[in-house]
Every structure is written in C-alpha cells, then in structure tokens.
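2024-03-11 09:14:02 INFO receiving multi-entity request
2024-03-11 09:14:02 INFO entity count = two
2024-03-11 09:14:03 INFO echoing inputs for audit
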Amino acid sequence: MSNPLAIELKGVTKVFGQVVANKDVDLQVRKGEILAILGENGSGKTTLMNMLSGIYYPDEGQIFVNGEEVVIKSPKDSFKYKIGMIHQHFKLVDVFSATENIVLGVNDNEKYNIKQAKKRVQKIIEKYGFEINLDSKIYEMSVSEKQTVEIIKVLYRGADILILDEPTAVLTPQETSKLFGILRRMREDNKAIIIITHKLHEVLELTDRVSVLRKGEYIGTVETKDATEQSLTEMMVGKKISLNIERPDPVNPKDRLIVKNITATNSDGREVIKDISFTARSGEILGIAGIAGSGQRELLESIAGLHHLSDGEILYMTGGETVNLRDKSPTQIRDLGVRLSFVPEDRLGMGLVGNMDIIDNMMLRSYKKGNSVFLDRKKPKDLAESIIKSLEVVTPNATTPVRRLSGGNVQKVLVGREIASNPKVLMVAYPVRGLDINSSYTIYNLLTKQKENGVAIIFVGEDLDVLIELCDRIMVINSGRITGIVDGRTAVKEEIGILMTQDSKEEKNNE
Amino acid sequence: MSKKQKTHEPLFHIAKRDSLPWYYSWAIRIIAIILALMVSALLTLFLTDENPISIFSTMIDGAFGSSRRIWNLLQNIAILLCVSLALTPAFKMRFWNIGGEGQVLIGGLATAACMICLGGKIPNTLLILLMIISSIAAGAIWAVIPAIFKAKYNTNETLFTLMMNYVGIQLVSYFVNIWEVPKGSGTIGIINQTNQEGWLPVIGEYDYLLNVIVVLVITVLMYLYLKYSKHGYEISVVGESENTAKYIGINVKKVIIRTMLLSGAVCGIAGLLLVGGTNHTITTTTANNRGFTAIMVSWLAKFNPIYMIFTTFLLVFLERGANEISTVFRLNQSFSDIITGIILFFIIGSEFFINYQIKFHTRKEVK
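2024-03-11 09:21:47 INFO inference complete, emitting structure
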C-alpha cells in the first residue's frame, strides 16, 4: 500500500534575520502520490520548497531523496536528484518557441539537435496527455499553455519529483480540471507530486495526503479522505473560523458609475478593452470575472484615470450631479470631488511603496493637501495607527517599511488607506491574491461593510467560488469584451467558466 | 558515520539579514577600516620596507599637518560634498546623473565668462551677482536637457548625461583657447589677478571659509528638502516606483525635470565656488573627476546629506593622505592609489556584511 519515500525532510529550519520561516519541519512524500502542502501565508510553504529546489539552503536539518541523505546547494543539485519545481511566476523566454524553452539549458553532452529533442518532447506529451503546440512562441500563449511548457520542461529533464507552487491560481475551472487529469496520470506513473495551494476544495479533490504548516512549524499530515474543508482550515489557522461570506441584499441601489461603450488600446496599439458598458450601483458589489489578462487591469485603470480611452465615456453620478471622468488625470478626478478609491492588483509596485514605512504610505493619497511646502506627517501617522489597530495589522510599529510585512498585512494597509477616504466607488483588483484564509475573510468582510455603507464596489476576482458567494452581480469579460453579466445569487461556476472562454472560441471560428 | 562523509557539506552559506541596529552596522564599518589599515600596513612593509606606522602618520600629517593643509582638506571636502549633494536628488529619483562633471564645468565656465568679459566694466557686487545667476542657470540648463529628453522620449539618461560631460569639456577647451593669457600658453592663468574683480569675498583671513559655509548651508537645506518637503517626498515615490507615482497622480515628467534643474543648479554652484572662490581660473580638469567621485559619496551615504559629510571626509582624507605618502617617501603615485583602493574596497565590501550574514554550518544530529 504505502510506496517508498521519494523525499524526506528531517528537522529542517530556515531563518531570515529574526523571522523564522521554517522551524524543525519534517515532511515525507511517497512515490506515486500527490501531497498537498497547506498553510496560511507566511507559514513557510514556499521557503520549504525553495530549499528542495536549491534556491535556499537550510540552516539546519537533513534532506533525504530516495532514502539517501543529500545536500542541495543550487538548482543544479536539485536537478541532479530529479526534483523539478514549477514556480508561480514562469521562467520562460518569451520570444522562444515551446520546444526551445524546454530544451534550454539542458546539458546532456549531446549535439544540439532540435528535431531529436522535439521527438522526445512529443513522447512526454503523448504519455501524459498534454495539449500544446510545440512550435508556438511563448508570447503567443495563454497562461495555461505557459504552465504546460513549464511542466513539460521539468519532465524533459527527467524529474521524478514535481513541486507545483499554486498552479491553479491563474487557471479557469476547465483548465484546472485538465491540469488535474495530467497530474493524476503522473501519479500513476509513480511520480511524487507536491502541490502548494490555498484552495481547499482542490486539495480534497486531487490529493492523497495533506501536510499542514502553521507559522513555519510543521503541524501534521492527514489522509485526504479523512479530511474536510473545516478540519483542514482548523489545522491551518489553529482555531475554528467560519467559512461563510455574508451577502446582505443591496439597500436602495442607485446608479453610481455608468460606463458607456469604452474602448482603449495598449502601448502596442492593440485594443485591450472593447466597447464595454456597465453600471455600478451603490450598495452593491459588482464582480468582474475573466481569465487573467482579459482587460481587467486596463478597465480599472481607465476608470481611475490611468489609461487613455480611445472611445466612450465614464459617468460618475452623485446627488443628481454627473461628472464625466474621461481623459481626466487622477489628480483632476480627485479635484472634481469624485470619491473614487482603487486597490490595484500590484500592491507593492503600484498601490504602495515597499521601501517606505506605513506612515509615508498613508501619505501617498493626502500629502498634497494644504499650501505648505513641507509635509504634514501628523495626520498620516494617526491614520496609520488607527488602521493598524482596527484592521489588526501585524507590524512592529508604524515606521516599519511595508515590504517587510506579510502579504495579508500589506493588503490591509492598502485597503485600509483606500477605505479611509470614504469612497463612493471602490475598485479592488484581486484583493485576496496570495492571502491566507483568515486575511481573505477579513477583506471580504471589509468589502461587505463598505457595501452596507452604500459604496459601489467593483471587485475583480479570480476565485469563482468567492465571486459567486460575495458579489451581487458578476460581469464576465474575455479578450476585452463583456461576454455576459449574471446574477451572483443564481450563477453557476461552469456557466461563468464557459463565458470566460466563449468569445475567443468564436473569434477563432471566424478566422 | 560513513554517511556523513559521502554527502559533502558546504562550510557556510549566505543569508540576507533582516535589519541591523545602527551601532552594529557602524561597528562593522569601523572594523572594516581597521582591517583595511592592517592590510595596507602589511603591503607597505612588504613592498617598500617602510614602517607602516610612519606611513600612516604621514597620511594623517598630509591631511592635518598644518593649518594650510587643514584648510585645503576642508576646501576639497566642501567642493566634493557640494557636487554630491547636487547629484543626490537625481539618484534618489533613480535618475542616473553621470553628468555632474559637465554640469560643474559649465557652471564654472559661466562664472569665468562673467569674470573675463565683465570684470572691471560693471561694479563688483553686480558682477558677483551675475556670476551666481549665470553659473546656476548654466548648470541647470546642462542638466535639464537630458531630463527633458528622458521625460518626453524616455531616452537613456546615463548615456545622455555622460555624453554631455564631453560636450562640456570641449566647450571649456574651446574658450580656454580664445581667452588664453598669455597667447600661446594654452591656459587662461589667474583671472583678474590684479584687481580681483569677481573673486568671491574672503571672510576674515580664511580663503576657503566662504566655500565651507555655503556648502554647509546647502547640506542642511538639501537634508530638509529631501526629508520634509513635498517635493522630496515626490522624488522618493518616483524613485521607488514610477507606477505608484502615476497611480496617486504625481506628474512624473514634471518631477524629473524639476529635480534635474535642482541637481544641475547645485552643480553650477560647485562650479562657481571652484572658479570664483578657489582657483580663479578654469581648465578642462577643473572639476577633477568630482562628478564621478560624488556618485560614490552619495551612494555610500545612502543619499543622506548628513552622512555625506562623513563619506566625503573619508574620501578626501584618503586622497590627500595618499598623495602625501607618495611625495614624502618618493614612492610613485600608484602606491598611494593602491592604499586608497584597499581602503575603499574594505569600506564598500563592509556593506555586504551589513546586508548579509554568513552562517557557518552547525548541524543538529537527527536520529
């Protein structure tokens, strides 16, 4: 029944400065099994896996591969022991074809022969049932295809132990089930697979065993068949928490933001949003679903005045007054008295400045106020302290650079600041990406509270289960076009999944 | 434990530090300097058979030996600090202003032009006023040209500012030819030597006191500007993340142009102090590579104007001390360069130990 061990970790510890990322972790992975590693953010999952893939070196502890103790000092060592990691951020050369990327860097002392290599790649593809065109270039590929290339890449190098870091975060439901099919076939082929994920239903669906980390410590391993979402959550968080999102009915919704036929192009001149029209109402959460890169970011940035529109208009309505936001800069929009807040996708690259402390980050929105040449740090300081207190931000103090905070706390700082300006319209893009369960629910509750205060919320999300639970209406976009707007209370996941991919299929048929 | 021999363990590995209390990081720096002195002492002993102690005392003597030397030291610190202060806002904005050299020279050229063309023709006070205005304007213009191109067409500022240096040097060399005194000498000589028209006033008996005071004032102003003004805040935001700057509605182009105007203007002041207050002449080497050394000063001090006083002092002290060694012991110039190199290597290398730590492998036995 129980297969031989592929990897065993004993007492592995890794410390960054004063932060203990992993403390005395034990872990076992067998051949022919899929093991999930669960844990909240900052619980040390990725650090642990990076030690297996040679990016970090453990401060203490031992690693065994196939029963023998090994030392993994570099990614090269990791390959030697047939460990392959598929990172969250793909490491591919955009202008190379799939095959070229797959064979890149393989040092097998053979003459470089792309045809031969392609044949070998083809064999792997047939064996596990991948769907990919090996000749297309990476930049032409969807996220799911890029991921496929990454997986084939490690298989081509002969990996017997695969580590996948949040592989489904960017996939549609259909793509996810395809990926799971492949992973199951690999399991049959006696490969050991470790998957890091936040999505509990996926863990239950796919894996054999689950190991849980909490705050860098190893909590335990359970058989998946004995586990439930509730029991796993309790192991991760260490206490009972409720997994329900409240969804009060919108009270007296009024049209707040009317978007009319907007079209915008990116810097290459390609249309990224096409003829989009919708209305966001007060006291309502409007969800936006779509495959990553379908125009979500450009849509929100257009509304926030960061992206030039080639056509259409954006009307902001409040108390009988209407303001057209088209072609206004963020400063002009603010000066017009439009209370629009925006939590962008890229928290540390756009919403906040990583190297600045919490106080200076609070000041981003308000520093211009007043005529003085000098800055007023008093009010931002009060705001920072009140946000730290009310949102329970875990930080040594208000003068800690935000990049030192964990993902969830960074997001609390950002959302806290955006809510502090009493917005009428609040746009959030992937607000819980990379956040643990606890922080995610904190954010959902914050949004729901804003909704009850009569704010019109536009929520761009990726987890369809959450969108369906949280939003009043869900707008689905694909390739910059709206493919449907559904009622959140009656929507079905598969229906949204189809809308997410529908349009592009039609376009292909037309060609 | 035969198993242990089979797996080869690395002796140590490197890990990033979280943060260090300031006294700890300064301790590392001081240890680095002590180590650097020890290594240079050994090398001196080995290469020259001189007593290292006497070499070091000569170094100190070279910098502080007489009141003239001390004033020379202060003067050099003041000018280098002035250029470093000028470059700091640009670098803080992550605008690679490699053009300090040219901006200083052009500022100096404008000063010299006023002194030569207007000296004796207008009242001295008016002349000095014109010198101040024109040197600041010239430096600012020299710096704002690459800034405008960066803002409008996103050109590479590193290459652009670097090239502007050469244009500046050639301009100076052209005017030196026009203004040369006596004809054929290829140099200008001391400008207005007899009437001292356009020479910056001397405070008391101290030739360089004015320079020192001016630069100290600029240091304090720059510190306040960067840390407490709205402009300084905008510079930090643009430097850290242009996307964030756009997101909160900062006009990035405007900030780039404004900051480079400031950077060039302060470089222009350095040129004014060099030509009007120190040398009273101009050559193509008047800036003496300070535009480049200043980059090191600024980064070593992590863009903090107050720390920059110390980093400038260190660099200038090393340079003067090393010069003294080569003269006194009749070693060639390269030897002083070696000593300076060793010390700088250790100081810059110490930053590595401040940011990273080396962990020697202590392993826990597992049964």
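2024-03-11 09:21:48 INFO post-check: The first strand of chain B starts at residue 12 and ends at 16.
2024-03-11 09:21:48 INFO post-check: Confidence is low (pLDDT under 50) at residues 1-6, 363-367 of chain B.
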